[in-house]
């Protein structure tokens, strides 16, 4: 304790007990400075604490939303997997002819015709025929 600080505390005298040392009635400048610093710190920290509480509330909302979306996605994945399995089953049924029956012939078969531009009687493109190319002179 400095000399200035001890001036604010009444010194024990012969007629007062030692444990009855009380601070003087005037607050010291150190106490006023500490109260001012506490007030300033409170004015800075309180908005930060309020913002932190708001962000914690938002985080908990987002956690619930993520949980809900994860459940929905898991359900959709199960539906998708079932649809893929069903599609594979249908494709397998379509590719294998029923047992005991001959497959039906194609009602509209595609003939294997030779190309008109290949072979001994090769045809010229229409625009060359229009110009008269390939005709005997």
What does this structure look like?
The chain has 137 residues and is mainly alpha-helical. The protein is 57% helix and 0% strand. The protein contains three helices and no strands. The chain has helices spanning 3-7, 29-95, 126-131. The longest helix is centred in the middle third of the chain and has 67 residues, at 29-95. Residues 1-8 have low confidence and may be disordered.
Strand proportion: under 5%
Termini, distance in Å? 131 Å
Largest sheet: none
SSE pattern: HHH
Topology, please?
Blueprint: H1 3-7, H2 29-95, H3 126-131
Short description:
It is built from three helices and no strands.
Features:
single chain, 137 residues, mainly alpha, 3 helices, elongated, disordered N terminus
